[in-house]
Amino acid sequence: MNKDSHKDIFDHIQRQSDISPTEIMQVAQSVQNMDLSNEKNVRDLVERLAKMAGKPLPEEKEDQIVEMIMNQNMPLNLEALQNMMKK
To answer: What is the pLDDT of residues 20-37, one digit of tens each?
Structure first.
């Protein structure tokens, strides 16, 4: 992915959720050494992201996202991820 693609993704995320590129990078850095096979770590991450986005996250949706992350079954493109979050 080139630099322009990264900028486009960050711009899109910021327009949709008001999360700055700096905040995104902070989360990305915190995840690098995180054990994503640990449910508590994954749940904490999902809750943190929902809070950053200022979006309510129903328990059922949180459970679904946690399960997908732990099973390494997350959509890899932004559009698929957004569609999943809207359901």
So the answer is: 778 878 888 888 888 888
Q: How far apart, in whole angstroms, are the C-alpha atoms of residue 44 and residue 14? A: 21
Three-state secondary structure along 2-33?
CHHHHHHHHHHHHHHHCCCHHHHHHHHHHHHC
| Contact in structure between 65 and 46 (CB atoms under 8 Å) | yes
Q: What parts of the chain have a pLDDT lower than 70? A: 1-7, 10, 14, 74-87
Residue 48 has, within 13 A of its CA and on its CB side, a CA count of 13
Measured in whole angstroms, the distance separating CA 42 from the mean position of its chain's CA atoms is: 11
Query: Domain locations in the chain?
Result: 3-86
